[in-house]
Amino acid sequence: xxxxxxxxxxxxxxxxxxxxxxxxxxxxxxxxxxxxxxxxxxxxxxxxxxxxxxxxxxxxxxxxxxxxxxxxxxxxxxxxxxxxxxxxxxxxxxxxxxxxxxxxxxxxxxxxxxxxxxxxxxx
Length: 123
Known about the structure:
About 0% of the residues lie in helices and about 50% in strands. The chain is mainly beta.
């Protein structure tokens, strides 16, 4: 298991909104992404694309602890189940509002995906 670095892409917003895209490349079976602080961003959408492999499960995990080490699986926007993307390309809106988030990926030896988090802070 490796922790993959993230990169931030600033995007133009409308009406003073702050908009960003976080990208984690090369996520393999058992990898997690470097966490990103998102507490100021109400709108979040999680995407994944690349080689799914057999049994892909790309989850977005959240944490609100002081230490930043208590990650849990976030739920679908309707609250019905854990947010788990199982094919590529796919995406899902995130309803939960933890302090920080990170992607977590499982699959098989051919799994190699890029996870993206699109976030907006409305003004």
